[in-house]
Design goal:
Keywords: Membrane, Transmembrane, Transmembrane helix. This protein has 5 helices and 4 strands, in the order βββααααβα. With 279 residues, it is mainly alpha-helical. The strands form 2 sheets. It has a two-stranded antiparallel sheet with strand order 1-4. It has a two-stranded antiparallel ribbon with strand order 2-3.
């Protein structure tokens, strides 16, 4: 009896990893960590926007709520993608964070190039930016850029792994014994006589017949041998039939001679007088 050794499984924040190594553990920890930080960061942004929210405008609350729901989908993709080894979710997590990093980086570059320029729609609004506005913008933008860059980096590294990194559950060890089995042929009553059930082995509680491929091959081979023997016998009988043909012709009866009574009668000339009578 042999027993399989238990597989090597490591737990990373409650997530099982098969065949663990430092690189895999690092990638899983990184993706799960940045996903949790991303969700917390977006919740903080939502609360911050709610403190400065004007209660007289109900559309602002709903727009912020919808934005929060959509933004939370990104870290959820990273968390569940790393937990369930789902390549599609990890791809979504990586692509969305790459797009967020690009947009925030371009916006920050434009803002810091001219921080005192107006950001309103009215060309007459030239209110300069105060140091508090710049600090608040930096407090939101810089962590967001760093978090998006790290999420994109670790997500791309985890997605580049072609093999299955994670497993969902650990199967118990299975004990097995090597026992050779021989094919057996079972004869059953398929006519369904007496006991009912129509002769079907499942209804008669009989084992299902096992058709051996070797036996079928032997039957076919025997049939072919019988056919070849019949052909050989037929070919051997052909010369004997040809030799018997002259003997049959020699034994044929002679021509049939008909008796004289049945021979054809030849007409003889008869003399007649002038009056038409016979002499």
């Amino acid at each position: 009896m042999q027993q399989n050794p238990p597989p090597l499984v490591a737990q990373v924040w409650g997530i099982p990893i098969s065949q663990p190594n430092p690189e895999k553990v690092k990638l899983v920890k990184a993706v799960v960590g940045v996903s949790i930080l991303g969700a917390v960061f977006r919740l903080m942004l939502f609360l911050w926007s709610m403190f400065g929210f004007d209660g007289g405008d109900p559309t602002g609350f709903w727009s912020e709520s919808i934005g929060l729901f959509l933004s939370l989908l990104i870290p959820l993709c990273g968390y569940f993608g790393a937990k369930n080894s789902n390549k599609e979710l990890i791809c979504w997590f990586t692509g969305c964070n790459g797009l967020i990093f690009f947009v925030m980086f371009v916006d920050a570059v434009k803002f810091y190039q001219d921080p005192w320029a107006t950001r309103g729609d009215d060309d007459g609004d030239f209110e300069p930016k105060s140091s508090g506005v710049i600090a608040g913008y930096s407090l939101v933008t810089i962590p967001g850029i760093i978090l998006a860059a790290l999420s994109f980096k670790y997500g791309a590294e985890l997605n580049s792994k072609r093999e299955n990194i994670l497993i969902r559950s650990t199967p118990p060890p299975v004990a097995f014994v090597n026992q050779p089995q021989q094919p057996q042929q079972v004869v059953i009553n398929v006519n369904g006589g007496g006991g009912g059930g129509g002769g079907y082995p499942g209804y008669q509680q009989q084992p299902v017949p096992f058709a051996s491929a070797q036996m079928q091959y032997q039957q076919q081979f025997q049939q072919q041998q019988q056919f070849v023997q019949q052909q050989q016998q037929f070919v051997q009988q052909q010369p004997q039939f040809v030799q018997q043909q002259p003997q049959f012709l020699q034994q044929a009866p002679p021509a049939y001679n008909a008796p004289a009574a049945m021979q054809p009668v030849v007409a003889q000339p008869v003399d007649m007088n002038e009056e038409g009578g016979f002499y």
